[in-house]
Amino acid sequence: YEVYGTPITNSHGELQGVVIVLHDITNLKRLEQARKDFVANVSHELKTPVTSLKGFAETLLDGSHEEETIRLQFLHIIEKESSRLQELIEDLLELSRIEHHSFELNVMPLELSEVTNEVVHLLEEKANDKEITIHVSCEGSTKMDGDIARIKQVLINLITNAIVYTQQGGKVCVKTIEKAEEVAIVVQDNGIGIDEESLPRIFERFYRVDRARSRNSGGTGLGLAIVKHLVEAQHGRIDVNSIVGKGTSFTITLPKKPN
Ligand code: ADP
Asked: Using CA atoms, how far apart are residues 193 and 246, in angstroms rounded to an integer?
């Protein structure tokens, strides 16, 4: 609490009482803490690849690794770490644009099942690499108004996660369902699942159930935060169900006519 006190005096200057104002600043403090945490997280996330880039570049420069295979190996690491950095910066910029509402939705008529098929096609190679099959199905008509690019991004993030967090040979199902005034998209996998404690936190920026695993698979920890914002910007909602060891299912519900 912030406390302000003001004495109340009468016309003769005699003290009559005191007004005390208690200002609840819990929320302000929480926001301030969240901002500080975010800056600390961003700094940490940027530092890791930069340190690694610097280290490998310096080692190459000092010339002690004349061997071609080692040189190539280092260059590959440098390339990979630069891509990570680039991806992280792009995600941060995207998140910042969304959070400051400095982006416009480009709403137009679309067929959701078509958009879904396109995205699945785009990610097929990634799934094939892990021998994961993606099943696509559609219930009813999924004609709606929406921002195609944003819906694609949401689907890319969710289906990529489904592939990343599912074992070799697993299965991912993407289903679009027509409702009265809405359409739903379900992205379901039979992967590693998310424990009950972590589940409410996965939409937070930089929250990861398993930091090392997410990093190794190229995750920035911002994907679901972006997804949630993009879905809400289109007046939709996102729900998640998960059982550890069995799999996870995300359901996005979007209005057919957002305006
Ligand atoms: P990341 O870049 O780490 O994947 P996200 O914001 O996309 O970041 O996801 C946050 C965390 O939620 C992930 O690190 C992972 O632990 C968990 N997660 C997301 N999707 C799934 C899924 N389909 N199955 C299991 N865990 C998931």
From this structure: 6
Look at 64-68, 171-175, 239-243 and tell me which has the smallest mean pLDDT. 64-68
Ligand 1 center to 15 CA (angstroms): 62
Pocket test for ligand 1, best of 123, 160, 189, 224 (most atoms within 8 A of CB): 224
Q: What is the rounded CA–CA span in Å between residue 174 and residue 251?
A: 10
Helix, coil or strand: residue 145: strand
The neighbouring-strand residues paired with 239 are 251
d(CA 187, CA 246): 14
Q: Tell me the C-alpha distance between 157 and 48, whole Å.
A: 23
Full-model pTM: 0.85
Residue 147 to residues 115, 151, 153, 227: CA-CA distances in angstroms? 11, 6, 10, 13
Nearest 10 degrees: CA dihedral of 238, 95, 158, 232? 20
ipTM of this predicted complex? 0.98
Tokens read off for 71: 């040189």
